[in-house]
Amino acid sequence: MEIIRLRGLGVSPGIAMGEAFISERVVFTSRRESISERQVEEELKRLQRALERTRQELTELKEHVRERIGNEQAFIFDAHLMMIDDQMLLSSLEKIIREEKVRSEWAISRVNAHFETLFDSLTDEYFQQRKTDLSDVLARIYRNLERKRNKKEDSDKPTILVAHELLPSEVALNISRKKVIGIALDMGGQTSHTAILARSLGIPAVVGLHDISLQLKSGDFIIVDGTDGEVIVNPTPAVRREFQSKKERYEVYQRELKKIARLKPETLDGVRFKPLANIELPEEVKAAFSYGAEGIGLFRSEFIYLQRLSLPSEGDHLAIYQKMASRTYPRPVYIRTIDIGGEKSLPQLNIKKEPNPALGLRAIRFSLKNRELFRTQIRAILKASARKNVRLMVPMITEVEEVIELKLIVEELKAELKEEKVPFDENLPIGVMIEVPAAAVLIESIIKEVDYVSIGTNDLIQYYLAVDRGNESVSYLFKPHHPAVLRLLDRVIKVVNREGKEVTVCGEMAADPLSAIILLGLGLRTFSMNPIFIPKVKKALRAVELKTAEKAVAEALKLKTAREIEEFMIEAILRRHPEAFLMSQIVS
Fold this sequence. Notes:
TIM Barrel; 8-stranded mixed beta sheet; 49% helix
């Protein structure tokens, strides 16, 4: 048999080797079956019975997952249960059945197609992934229209699950039965629930493989490399031995990471630094702390809007923020206000498409034009701040006027809550994200208005270098170590440090060992990143002396190109501290 190597996106690191099991997906009907006027009420009752069965099934599945995996993963089904009771969803189904006089199967297919089109029109990967949750719920309702028993599982032999796109409930069920040792999917991304479940359970996973589910058949032997995002079909004995060796090295690496997670975050010469975690869901807090996070440096609040088809209430926001405050206490949690608009739209908001969305109505600009939504979110954040470990963070600030306007809204809401005798942190720290070059240039003025700043290097570099990093034609120009970028960061960090306030980097630079050492040398002490990268960065920073990093960076800032800077920094650090980059070599 011919060996096939497929490239995808590694969303959960590690190596899995074994036989493939092809998972079949639910196919919604394309046949419109009509009913008579007198059958409409009975059809609506049939739909209600299916909804009740689905609600019971999801409740049982949630308990099943809680028992076998733990509370941290059962949260997925809370979101699904909320969708079952979402009035917009129910009224959409009922309206189609009543007005078109059709069977429930057709109504569900229509609603699913409508929301798939809506979510597919959103270019932001995180938002696109949420359509899977809705499809999962609709598929369950669809199946429960008929009382058919699920097929008995063929075998309990460990396999690699291969599918076009896995529904979250399918993942949870299969994984909880300890049958799945790896996952390979045509579709998916970093923020899909499949990826979150796989990472939390240490199951290697690769997604975005396009058509692997069509190329394979159950029983084919495959290798899933979740670290490098590669899947190998029909590997030769030599390739199997190569990956078995890599698997063993990765397991050594994992054991080393667990040890590092518990160590004190300080440089060789005793200078403390603070690793924080970027997360999307409250249920990720426990895992983040297990990796060594000392707080949550970025909590993306957009998912609150993605749990339902209608707009979340203040109570919906508050429940999530209180959960975050409670789970992180006494450590800090930085709650970023909603970063939508432009290419990051939501079905509930019906935002108009813009010709240049990256430079359009998004983040703070969107929030200030939609005051009631913004006030609802900030009121909830204030209410959740009573424990005094919550921080308010606002994205994409461009000018000082936006900061002043933000502070006025916060003060108005504080006055309201005082009058209502609702407890909150009267000194709630307010910070902004430095993602727009104009804000970086205005840092002397902005820092006087806020308590801290967080530098979002992903967007800042993209805007500063005029490079769309998602565009393959120009992505080679996206260079975090570009001399202009480092000089800009140097200025921002120095100004904030001089004011005695906190500065954090929460972009991908914080998660890269070389970049983290450079940032340390520039004066940064707080690094926020995807939790899985914390031990690797911690290892690098613990292996260097601050004075070495500072001296090397001072020289590097005089150089002319990103390549010169990288080569100089690596040589300078390795000469004094050869262990700084050792972790990445273990799994290469």
